[in-house]
Structures are given as C-alpha cells and as structure tokens.
Amino acid sequence: MKNIILNLVEQGKYSEARKRIISLNIVDIAQMLEELEQQKLLITFRILPKDLAAGVFTHMPSELQRCIIESITDKEVKSILDELFLDDTIDFLEEMPANVVKRILRNTNEETRRLINQFLNYPKDSAGSLMTIEYVDLRKGMTVEQAIKRIKETGIDKETIDTCYVIDNNRILEGAISIRKLILSDESTLLKDIMDTGVIFINTHDDQEDVANLFKKYNYLVIPVVDNERRLVGIVTIDDVLEVIDQEATEDLQKMAAIQPSEKEYLKTSALQLARHRLPWLLILMISATFTGGIIKRFENALQSVMVLASFIPMLMDTGGNAGSQSSTLIIRGLALGDMKPGDIFKVLKKELLVSGIVGITLSAVNFVRIYYIEKTDLLVSVTVFFTLFFTVVLAKIVGGVLPIIAKKLKLDPAIMAGPLITTIVDAVALIIYFTTATWLLGI
Amino acid sequence: MKNIILNLVEQGKYSEARKRIISLNIVDIAQMLEELEQQKLLITFRILPKDLAAGVFTHMPSELQRCIIESITDKEVKSILDELFLDDTIDFLEEMPANVVKRILRNTNEETRRLINQFLNYPKDSAGSLMTIEYVDLRKGMTVEQAIKRIKETGIDKETIDTCYVIDNNRILEGAISIRKLILSDESTLLKDIMDTGVIFINTHDDQEDVANLFKKYNYLVIPVVDNERRLVGIVTIDDVLEVIDQEATEDLQKMAAIQPSEKEYLKTSALQLARHRLPWLLILMISATFTGGIIKRFENALQSVMVLASFIPMLMDTGGNAGSQSSTLIIRGLALGDMKPGDIFKVLKKELLVSGIVGITLSAVNFVRIYYIEKTDLLVSVTVFFTLFFTVVLAKIVGGVLPIIAKKLKLDPAIMAGPLITTIVDAVALIIYFTTATWLLGI
Predict the structure, then answer these.
(1) Which of B246, B289, B315 sits opposite A245 (nearest CB)?
(2) CB contact under 8 A, A281 and B243
(3) CATH number of this structure's domain A2-121
(4) What is the CATH number of domain B266-442?
(5) Where are the domains of chain A?
(6) Is the confidence at residue B212, as pLDDT, over 70?
(7) Which runs of consecutive H residues, i.e. helices, occur in A155-310?
(8) Over the stretch A404-443, which tens digit does the pLDDT of each residue have?
(9) In A174-196, which positions are buried (b, 16+ CB within 10 angstroms) versus exposed (e)?
(10) Domain range B137-240, CATH class
(11) This model's pTM is above 0.90
(12) Cβ separation of B312 and A294 shorter than 8 Å?
C-alpha cells in the first residue's frame, strides 16, 4: 500500500494518492511522508484533509514540522493550530527556533497565546509540561442526563472523555466520573451521588517520573493536574506517560554508561554532539584511573621481582568491575522503579554481603584450581590471587550496592554513581589488597 | 489515615476500620494490608465488601495472595474469582503452586476452567498472556442506539468500554468504534457507517515487546488480539503495557550488566537466587580475562625491561572499556526502542568512526600532556601510550557500536553483547597494540 501511494505521488497523481492515503492511520501517513523529497512532501501534505493534516503533523519529526511551517501560508498554519491539542502544540513549539515560534504565536488568538506562554514556562519534565487542557468539566449538581448532554456538546474537541472531572465554582477539583459509569447509570441520578471523591491528582510542578509512577501504581488512564490551590488546570493522559517511561529508562542507562543524557535519537545527533556527550566522563575517569596506575608504580619493585603478578591484574580488575556493576545496576533500577527505598540500605547491605560471599568464594576457588593445578602457578602467588579475588568481589558488591543508595539519600542521582565510577574505586582498592597480600605472603 | 486504620485494626475495632478503609483506593488498601501480621490481615481482608475485595486481591504480592487463598473458604474463593478479570486471574495463577491452582480450578465453572487452561498455555511474554477477554463486541448492522443499549446491558463486567469492537457472525474482527464516537453520534446512525475499519490488531502469539511498540507508535489505549483466522479473542489494555515496558528495560539493563534477567524484585529474591543469576557471566568473563593475562605473560620480558609500562595498563583498559560501553549502550537502546534498524549498520559505523576520532584524539592528547610534561615520563613511552590510547578508543567504539547490530542481525540478543563482553575483547586487543607498539618503538 505504502509503495503504491509513493509511486502515485512520484508520478504526480495526487488526487489518486489522496484517496488511498486517507484510509491509512495518521502515524503511518507521517512515517510515509518522511520518505518523500521536500517538494513532494509539501504537495502531499497540503492535499490532506484538514482534520487529518493536524494529526499527521503531530507525528512528524521536528525538522519536517519546521520545513512545513516555513513553507505554508499563515492561513494554513492557523488551520493546523486550530486542530492541534494544546500539549502537541507545546511539544512542537519547544523544538522550533524563535522566529518560527513568533510566527505561530502571531497566528493564534489572545487566549491561546496566553496559554501557550504559560505552558512554555512550566519546568521541562514537570507534570505541567506533560498535561493538556482539553478535558470535560462537570458540576456535582448535574444529573447524568445533563452531564451526557454537556459531553455531547463540548466533548468533540477534548483529548479524552473517558474520565470527566467535577469542579466547583472556583474550579476546585471535587471528584471524577468515568463515561462508563455515566452510561451505566440512571439518567436522573445526580453526579454527586456517583462521582468518585477520592481522586488521585498531581501538581503542575511534580516531576514527570513521579507522574509515571502514579500511573503505574494505580493503573489509571488519565490523572488530573491541579495548581497549588487545588484548582483543576489540566489532565495528563497515559499515552504521554509511555514516552516518559522510556525516556527515564534511557536517561538512567546513559548515565550508567558514563554518557551525559540526551533525549535526541542517536541517528539524528551529529558526531560532534555525540562526542561532547561522551568526553567529560571519559576524561574524568581516565584521570582517576591514573590513581590506579600510581598504585602499580608504588609496587614496581614487588612486581619486578615476581613478574607473574602482572598477568593477573586484568582478571582482578575486570571481575571486580563486573561484580560491582551487577550490584549497582540492580539497586539503581530498584530505586528508579520504587521497588526499594533509601531506608532499605541495611537490607541491601546484608543481602550483598551474603551474595558476594557465595559469588566470591566460587570464583576464587575456580580460579585457584585453574591457576594452581592447571597452569602450575606458584602456590603463594595462587593464594595471593585467591584472597585478592575474594575480597575484591565482596568489596565491589558492597560498594556497588550501597553507593547508589547513599547517593539517593544525599539527593544525588544514583545512576551517576554506577558502573564506571564504582569500577574506578574498586580497581584501586583491589590493587592495594593484591600488592599488600603479595608483599606479605611472598616476602618481597 | 493509614495509621489511624492500622491502629483501629490493632485494637480490634474492625467495623470502625472498615468504614474508613472503603474510602481508600484499592491499591492503597492492598499496600496497607501488607503491613499487617497474618491473622489481622486475614480478618481485615474478610470484612472488605465483596466488590472491593477482588480489586484489593489483584494488587497484593503473590505470597499474600497465596496466604489468603489458603485460609478462606471455597465459597469466598469463588466470590473473589467471580469479580476478577480473566487477565488478573491468570497473572495470579501463574505464581501459585499446583495445589492452589487445582483448588481454584475446582471453584470455577466449566467455561472459565476451559478459558483459564487456554490462557495458561499461551507462551509467556506473548500477547495472549497479556490479553483479557472482557471486551464489548458489537455488530455492524446495529444502530448507535442499539449499540449503547448493548453496552449498558453487558458493559458492567468489561475491563473497558472505551473502545468496542465490531465482529461478524464468525467473530472475525471488522472494525472498532470508540464510546466517544457513539456518544457524539446520532442515535439512528448505523455502526458500519461510523466504525473505524483500519483497526490495528495483534496476534495471540506476538511478542509483548512488539505489542508495547505498537502502543507507543499509535498512542492507542486498547489493541484487539486476534487468532490466526483473524477472529477476535481478546484485548490488551495500555495499563498492562506499562509494566511490559519497565520489564523490558529492566531485562536489557540486567543483561548489559552481565546478570541473568529475572523479573523478581531484588528485595524479594533470596541471596542464593541472586548469586545464581550473577555467577555464570562472572565465571565466563573471569575465564576470558585469562586471555588478557596471557598476553601480558607473553610480553613479560618487554615489561620487565620497561616497568613503567605496567602502570598505564589500568588506565588503558578502563578507558577502552568505558568508551566501548558508551557506544554499545546507545546502540542497544536505539535498537530496543526501534529508533534504528540493523540496516543502519553503515551509518552507525561512519558515526562511531567520527566520534571515536574526536574523542580518541582529545583523550590521547590530554593524557600525553599529563604523562610527558607533568609526570616527566620517557618520550617514547609517552608516544606509545598516546598511540595505544587513540587506537583503543577507536576500536572500542567501533566494536561497541557494531557488535550489538550484528547480534541483532543474527537474531541474537543485542543486550548480551554489551558492556562486559565488549570490554574483554577491547582489553585483549588494546594490550596487543600496547606491547607491539612498545617493543617496536622502544626496541625491546
């Protein structure tokens, strides 16, 4: 189907193409348009029916949105804006350069302009920047019949009518009622008798991660957003939260891999930008690894007299690093998903002690068998490696388990405390244990 | 509020407690019950109104569910089961031991038993195991009035009535219609004239990750599930997908940290189980690190004559490992979110070459200044470190960027190819470059 349409467009048979396009889903149309060259894209976009055009526009990447906005008339801009939900307008404006934003604002009425400015002022990643204002508001004195009438009158422009909100004359949130309950209730019932008064709500300034956690906890599809006076100002719908969940997981992953987090897709980020996100931590970690080098230098004489010690350094460092990042990954993820709280630190400590004991003794024993019995390494060297490996694993798991929790307690980001930083600490301590044991056991 | 209720329960004032409990959200009630000791928990659970009890039960951890099921009468079991949605029943049964499952099946009617057995047979992590059968089905010949009447009659037991599905006499899926459209349409309109015929659907055997991606792509709240004959068999609702998204991200994170993935929460997993998830990869990586040790052994003489070379090994290995896992993390995440496809391999290669060039030259230069000018290291050694660091970074980024894509192409899991495995490869090659350059430049 897609290829047929693309062919029709290539051949300039636009009205033929239009007929087929309108049977597609807006997301698929947007994806298809991306494959066209600019001029054909513009023509195809302009022949779309008005109501489809806005939906397709919402699902386009921001470069294409910009290219379209810059090529169409003010009247066309206005007609797209009229069809867009406010949250989609904001998402789009946030990616546009100042001159485009100005042109958009020029083409909206005063009320919308005021709203847009208000929304653009909400902190990034806050509930305010996620929410939309297209919700249905009802009054508790209404009957079910009146409520359904109001929904029929005003619902057509709303992002969702699945849950409607009951407010008082000062717009204070009083309750919620689902369309399902309205439909299944008797027409003469008063809303105040059937509305849900224990509504869970969020504040405009709440962090989007907390918003996502509320959705997960309560299985809601919509959550109302209120200001500091508990006045209803908007709603957040679950589909916007899916993106937040992915974003937050990606951000944690990037931090754990020592990258400065960025929301931009890899393929759409320039090499220079990518390099800029990666360099700072690599530099910091490279310089802190010098410390480890310093330890080796300090024990140069010991190393020189028993050269075989050098060959176990990579294994000790790697195993310590891996053991530590296993623990830190589980803890960081657990904290992010709310499965554990900073108060669980002693439970974690106890568990990591046990786990590291089991893991450490197994690894050390296997390694001892390998290097002493199979590779015929000197007994005392083998014993040194045995002890160092065991204590390195225990240490790595405790540092890996506890450091993210301490970070959380200090209101720092646990993800930053992950992998590479822990590896550097563990490396240094492992080498100190290694050479101290060696000098003592081997008498060097 | 929670503390007041817990106090009332402690004092045995159950009817007082009940009054307050019923004003709470079921999720909060479930969480509160977790804090009670077993006997009080059971009493409190049994005084809950029937319709609340099932909801609260769904949100309890499986140990508590089991404890409740084992302590209540068959009649109570039956009344809970009657209120549960099928997908919640399945989730709960999947965690129960065989004797509990048997007791449950004994307390259901034949039809439900057949359905439960069918659902338990869907592959874990498939759309079939995610879906529920509580949807509203309509016929295209119905008028809006008839449809709303049917929803009023049958909708009370359904998981959602927001989207209803139109099927033919053989239950083949023909279209979908939202409750919103029904409410906003004229009562005499025929469904076939307003239904959406381009419904996106999934097959019972589709993987849950693909299901989640469809929800993200199309912003739907519900997606219908069909069998191989396109007969409607169930629906998946978006709230179940939130969990899937978290689960998939967690699984990738665990694999990248060299842990065997597990869905069980950290604090609820025993130390022995945790150790079992962590040991296999640690063992494999420890043994493969031996290879790196072998390289050092092979160059023991070179090392012995220029001992300072040893002190740069940790820095080279760490920086290589970090540079590689930065790239692999971005690529693995991009593949998981569908931002890039295996076909993008050459774009990635080109980008990583550029990025690694910039990053490599910066790191090497900074390090050269530090070791040659500040630490007064020998010039030829400094040059050796300069070259090795540069090529290690380039190599690490290319391996890190390309290996996950190759894994995906070979239908292997890209996440397994991440961090630790790449580190081991990069370590070995870095040491070979290091010692080869050193022997050549320093003439040792």
Answers:
(1) B246
(2) no
(3) 1.25.60.10
(4) 1.10.357.20
(5) 2-121, 137-237, 266-442
(6) yes
(7) 179-184, 191-194, 208-218, 238-256, 271-298, 300-305
(8) 999 888 888 888 766 677 888 888 889 999 999 999 988 8
(9) bbbbbbbbbbbbeeebebeebbe
(10) alpha beta
(11) no
(12) no
